[in-house]
Amino acid sequence: MSDSLLSPPPRRNLVGLGRAELAEEMAGFGAERFRARQLWHWIYHRGVTDFSLMTNLAKPFRERLCEQYELRRPAIATARTSIDGTRKWLLRFDDGQEVETVHIPESDRGTLCVSSQVGCTLTCTFCHTGTQRLVRNLTAAEIVAQVMVARDALGEWPSPPNGVGEDRMLTNIVLMGMGEPLYNYDNVAAALKIVMDPEGLAISRRKITLSTSGVVPVIARVGAELGVNLAVSLHAVTDELRNRLVPLNRKYPIAELLDACRSYPGSSNARRITFEYVMLKGVNDSPAEARELVRLLQGIPAKVNLIPFNPWPGAPYECPTDAAIAAFSEIVFNAGYSAPVRTPRGRDISAACGQLKSESVRARRGVAAQRPAPAPQPAV
Length: 380
Ligand code: SAH
Ligand code: SF4
Prior knowledge:
By secondary structure, the protein is an alpha/beta fold.
């Protein structure tokens, strides 16, 4: 007897479907239209993983759903909690690929750092993710699942009668995990629409920040179609240096990138674009570069985020001294821009972008991950 006769057909996972997809699936299943809306509420507002808990659906209907569908999360390959409260999950998807999701609690908010790709094709020379051999886009469902897993782990699904609490641990989302979100725009956009839906996960576009290394042609769409906050990984003030640090700069140089920022829909003094600047000792950390940064940003509603370089084994850079970073920050601050230095979080759990994933790969292969030849960049 063949396997297919022995094992039941695989059940379709409904977690990660958008509104239209869920409606279509339910129509094909023969359910009335309003059922899709009820399911949406259970899946994304209440976070249930068991159809039998959907008490406003008739029992025979729940049983039929259970025969054909599932509400499954990806497997958690590793979960760690730092002494500073930062939590990190390495998620493993059905094909065995893994990505990281990090939760950073702060006094006034809790931020989830979400990945958009397995690895990254853009070999920025200071970034560990760019050294990872395997690269694929995450599906919209895999991006949404990162938020669902965090809500599960933080115990934050609203349960009546309280509804949505005031003091939530997951209030903000940053697309600053593994991958370049604008090289996977369609899936990122579909996922964010699910995450922002007010009848579901309900995280407002104002609480979401998308970070890009500068995929200029897609930036305007982010503002027009999603309306989320924009962060741009600048890291250098001359094309010569940025070409070396962020190779994508050869395709979209600084002037073009800043023009796209100037016309970013929805930016204003109240909603500034964040310019990320990784501090690399002796490379981009001089006072002259701080002054040039201020000059470049003129006319853009901007704030600057200084990120001390987070070292990884074999990295060709070092982090500047605290004094050098403070001097840089002061120049930018005195020119009227907020210029906080991002405090390293979760160092004891390898919370640097890409590290936990690499540890896991090394443990399984017994070898150090190596920088691959630059992968071809998708045309956008
Ligand atoms: N691909 C996107 C988003 C993910 S990276 C981007 O590049 O913007 C998120 C941020 O972490 C980027 O600003 C990136 O430049 C920065 N980063 C990457 N590796 C780093 C490291 N080793 N130390 C400090 N910041 C790093
Ligand atoms: Fe990719 Fe961003 Fe890392 Fe560059 S910094 S390699 S774009 S993840």
